[in-house]
């Protein structure tokens, strides 16, 4: 069975909702922080993999089948350099989301209020990417 990468985006939304749910405000702050960080990471990987698969399977970017090193940078850079405005928008949104994901995956100290704002931004970017992918899939 082929994995549905949109499921990661659903998980991201659920994690953020759980943290912001008033009955979970009493959770251990570290657990809430981990949930928010995971939300951002899952949002990124959801749309990254959907984008990768679209480029590989629909646009014929066969090199993505064997590319192992820095595939994230490769995809984002090529999208940003595209002549198609939708691809450039896709690349810019994906780059912004990747920067957020890198920040929450590697930085030890981020203020909680910033994390929550980052998560909301990450979900907006992910949804924007989904809309772009839907649009270019129909063209």
Task: Summarize the helices and strands and which ones pair or pack.
Blueprint: H1 6-20, H2 29-57, H3 71-80, H4 85-106, H5 112-138
Helix pairs in contact: 1-2, 1-5, 2-4, 2-5, 3-4, 4-5
Write up what this structure looks like.
By secondary structure, the chain is mostly helical. The chain has a single domain (6-138), classed as Four Helix Bundle (Hemerythrin (Met), subunit A). Helices cover 74% and strands 0% of the residues. The protein contains 5 helices and no strands. It has helices spanning 6-20, 29-57, 71-80, 85-106, 112-138. Helix 2 (29-57) runs antiparallel to helix 4 (85-106) and helix 3 packs antiparallel against helix 4 (85-106).
